[in-house]
Every structure is written in C-alpha cells, then in structure tokens.
Amino acid sequence: TVGAVALDQAGNLAVATSTGGIEGQAKGRVGDSPVLGGGTYASNDSCAVSCTGDGEVILRGALAHEVCALVKYQGLPLAEACQAALRLHDDKLKGDKGFIALDPQGRVAIEFNTNVMRRAYRVGEAAPYIAIYQDE
Amino acid sequence: MTLYAIAIHGGALTMKPGELSEEEAAFQRVGLGKALHAGWLILNRGGTALDAVEAAVRSLEDNPHFNAGRGSSLTRQGEAEMDAAIMDGRTLQAGAVTGVRYVQHPIGLARAVLERSPHAFLAGDGALEFALACGLPLAAPSYFQTDKTRQQWLALAQQESNQLAGHD
Question: Of A23, A103, B65, B160, which is the most exposed, with the fewest CB atoms less than 10 Å away?
Fold first, then answer.
C-alpha cells in the first residue's frame, strides 16, 4: 500500500492511498485502503492519515478515523494519537500497522510496529527525510 | 513563512529486512524521493494538498517497486485488483474505488469519483465503466505484473497445488 498526506499553503489537508492488496488475495477482497475512516481519512479540524499494514485489522479498528478522533475530541498531539491508535484493542487487533499523519500546524507523525516501513517526508524548504528500516 | 508539508509511505511486497536486497532497497529509496518531490513541488508552487497527494501516489503507482498500480500484488487468479481513495480535508469530499482492474492510475479514478460523480465509492465493473466514461488511461493485465509478482504468484499456486495432491 502506498499513500500520501499533505498540507498546502492555504492550510488545507488531504490524503490519498492506493494499493494492490495482498499476494494471493481472494477475488473481491477489500482491505482498509479504500475505506474512508478505515485506512484513509482527512479533516482540516484534526489531521490527515494514511494507513498501511494488515488491512483487515486496520479496517476493524477504523484506525484512520480513530487517529483523527483522538486529535479532535481528546486533544492529543498527533504523534500520541497515532501511538494510541497503534495500541488500540491490542489484544483483539493484533497485526502489522503503520500510519503517516499530518496536522494543520505542519507536524508530521509516522508510527509503525513493523521492522520495515518505507517512508519519507518534507516540511517546507527543510531537507527531505527518507527511510526504510525501523532504526533509521 | 508559509507552512506546507508532505509525508508518504511506499509499501512493497517484501516486509522482512532479511528478504530485502540492498539493490531493491536502493530502488525503493529513489522511488520514495521521486514521489515525495512530485508532491512537494506542487505545494512549493502554491498548489493544493489534493493535487500534491494525488501526484505523489501516482508516482508510486507508476513505480513497479511498490505495491500499487504497476507492481500490485496478484489475486489468487493471478490478476491485479486495485483499491484507492482520496479525501479533501477542507470539504470532506472523498472518492474511493475498489476491485479495479486495467485502470493505470487507480488514484486518478478515485479523484474522478470525488470530482465527477455524485458518489463517494465505486466498486468493480461500475468503477471500470466510470473510468471508461471519464476517458482515463487503461492498460493490459501484463502492465501491472512484474517478474517478482509473477514469481510470487507461481510459488503460491504451486504451494496450493501441492496441498491438493492427496485429494481426487
């Protein structure tokens, strides 16, 4: 799954997510990526989030919307909201999860529980950050 | 100073560090940089966040090293069946598609659903027919397959065939 979140100079957020699914998946299987609130969500009053990982787990947790709701209603900073969503119902929602998120203040959060998460971000004119492995 | 920012993720078939070759990792880093720049350039020039995320994802869909568009995983039947979604945080307008075949840029189709249909989510044949009606570029099934996805699909098919060996 690939995805992007952005904040433009007018202060608007957006998200896009696209996927080829999982290898050998059943015909007609739908994961989290195209489901609004599941793997993809954006609202100017909270944040923009794109998810990757075990689609069924992320979908059952409605995790993209969970991050936005934690920011909006609980007032959590973006990174803490992503960490909380990562741990949400940890006993019932076990699996690989990764989030990229961005808020209207231009704060980027990237949280994941896997060894590999190919990711990159750039804020304004600052140098771009590009990484693959967990410890980069 | 005006604030703008972009972040991306680029999932691929290989999830374990030990299985990811240095050469493949290098291709992926270049691909991430290219996609990031495509979106960043739009933001830097004063473009919209919606245009920026679409451009970044299109770049990753074009790149066979990532699991979307060209390079997608294959279904049990050996086909690429793709999903995509896009959402505008300003208006809460959204477009999503699932089970899409042949459409070169599923994210472009999701954007068309957002802008040119009264709906938020189209599936399968309906999504494909909408892509045709919008004149979006299509590609043959082979376009979406790579050597790696074909090999992985063959390995899975062989495994399934072996499991069935004891049955009539």
Answer: B160
Q: Give mean pLDDT, residues B139-147.
A: 95
Partner A contacted by B95 (CB < 8 A): no
Q: Enumerate residues 85 to 124 of chain A having a beta carbon within 8 A of any beta carbon in chain B.
A: 96, 98, 100-102, 105-106, 108, 110, 114-124
Those of residues 37-66 in A touching chain B at CB distance below 8 A are 39-44, 48, 50, 52
* CB hemisphere CA count around A18 (13 angstroms): 33
Q: Let me know if A1 is a catalytic residue.
A: yes
Instruction: Give dist(CA B150, CA B168) in Å, integer.
Output: 27
- Give just the sign of the alpha carbon dihedral A85, A92, B19, B13: negative
pLDDT (average), residues B144-155 = 90
pLDDT of residue B13: 74
Collapse the DSSP code of A100 into the 3-class scheme (helix H, G, I; strand E, B; otherwise coil) and give the result.
strand
CB proximity list for A123: less than 8 A, separation 6 or greater:
A106, A108, B3, B4, B5
Please give the sequence-ordered ranges of beta strands (E in DSSP) within chain A, or none if there are none.
Answer: 2-7, 13-19, 40-42, 48-53, 97-102, 108-112, 116-123, 129-133
Sheet with A108-112, strands from edge to edge, namely: A40-42, A48-53, A97-102, A108-112
- Is the Cβ of B113 closer than 8 Å to some Cβ of chain A? no
Q: Which of A29, A36, A119 sits opposite B85 (nearest CB)?
A: A36
Q: How many CB pairs under 8 A join A and B?
A: 286
DSSP B158: H
- What are the b/e assignments for A85-117, b being 16+ CB within 10 Å? bbebeeeebeebbbbbbbbbeeebbbbbbbebb
